[in-house]
Amino acid sequence: MQARVARPAPDDSDPLSIQPPIFETLEERTARLARESREKEISDAIDAEIEKSRANERRGPKPIKILLLGQSESGKSTTLKNFQLMYDPKSFRAERASWRAVVQLNVVQSFRNILDAVARIENQEQPSPGSPQSPKRGPLLTPEILGIKLRLQPLADVEKNLIRRITTAGSGQVDPDFRHGSSNVHPSKGTLKEIAINSTIPWKHAFSRLLKSDHRSSFDSADAIDWDDPEDPWAILNQCSQDMIQLWNSPSIKQLLTKKMVRNEDLSEYFLDSLERITAPRYVPTDDDVLHARLKTLGVSEHLFKISTDGSVRDWKVYDVGGQRSLRAAWAPYFDDIDAIIFLAPISCFDQVLEEDHRVNRLEDSFKLWTMIVTNRLLKDTNLILFLNKIDLLRTKLTSGVKLRDYVVSYGDRPNDLDSATAYFKRKFGGILYEKSPSPRVFYCHLTTVTDTKSTKYILSNVRDMLMRQNLMKTNLLA
Length: 479
Known about the structure:
The chain has helices at residues 26-59, 76-87, 89-94, 96-124, 143-151, 154-166, 176-179, 234-239, 241-248, 251-259, 269-272, 275-278, 287-292, 362-375, 391-399, 418-436, 453-474; strands at residues 64-69, 172-173, 196-198, 296-298, 300-309, 312-321, 340-346, 383-389, 444-448.
């Protein structure tokens, strides 16, 4: 029998690259051609299906595009979390492992702020060099508080551990003092700088190994967690729990924080009021915990949602764009073909300055950003939806006696209450829209606390219905 020699296949993984043997019988050739014919029919059918899908996409409705804008810490990322909770709850809850670490970091950084305030008072009360007198403790620094301060020193190591894990290589920026355990504080307001995470890098994956192998897609219960992870800080937090609770609830500490002007925004009060639950051995974040968890993001993140209303399902693309001054140049490319901008103005920040420039008032910065958006001709046909955000913090400030007129001269002698203040802000932002917009626009304005799930869900539902209706009218599907 004559030996047959076959050419080697250039790539066994690609059946189309396989060459027929140099010598083959008539029977083998007939079988090969029949097999190739069947394979070609299958390939052609696949190609046809792909082209059909592409054609349908071209003919089908374009996704509705939403851009979230506002200065840093205005609430954009929390608004995006609300979109996820409403329209993609499965993936929202699958990320609980990563947010659990952020909650823990928020707690320990809040206590670092408190302990730094205690340390500053303690240093002020030390005797001058060479003085024979012993330090005179004020009523705020009792031996009990100083003992708690000493026992809470392990929180510094917890903080460094959490920051190291969250800011994986290339994913975040952090003050060098954090990494080296320094107690240095921000020179302008006595608080620690926050870490910032690059939204384009999947930092959350660093915590996926916290889940047991049979719970990789879910984090809805304590049974899903691998509690034997040696780097998890829950044991230290649980050990320090009672001291943390006692220190936070101390009237002396409340007075000290007021004296040192430590702002509510520098403390995660929502979590500090729930320390017993959060430091428990088998703590799992709730939806509200995730919404309250603070983590500054850099860059642009894009999320796709399938949203249905009145029997119609549409793709929505929501873009969260970083609000730091250095990142605002990246906004313009997203102005093209955008359906709506949700602009978040944190009106509780009337007495604060920008982190990037302490000469600029945060409220004034929001007015300038809003004016920039309103006057941009690329956006003349874009819906502008204003969220006057953080009204809960505004109410707290006004109730505590902080005078809005001391920071906003044009507020004049109006009453220093929430209703009067929000009415003033509505008129101020609305006036900019009516005077500066290159084309007539409807003024969509909502008073929001985006950490409040119930109210935010209602507002976003209204926004959804309005945009869906407008989109149908544009495509002549609705009279």
